[in-house]
# Entry
Amino acid sequence: MTSQGKRVSGIVKAFDDLILGYTLKKLTEVFEELLAVSRQHYPDNMTGVLGMAQVKAAKSIPGWLKRVKCSSPFEVTHVLIEQMNQSRKFQHGLRIEAQAVLLEALVEAELAMDEASYSEFVDRN
# Structure
């Protein structure tokens, strides 16, 4: 590969990582909203409004998952773990919990690696 080809490849990879990071951030926001709504108790007159917010948030999940499917499970796990470390650094409790639930869901859907497999892969390479 030529020098120019390597540079273009690096730019494309950086752009893909940026888009994946944004996608995982948006999915985290959806999971945060769902967790927050499920934990809080509201007066009866708010139940319908909050229910609609949950439905709206949940409807956006398939669109974001389409983008996640374009990346390897390693890339997805790597970017999400980086985001989780940032959340821990800034002590964002609900976000950390939402990211953990998101990672678990992505692992179950075979779109991400579990943390043990990820750590083993990183240690080998």
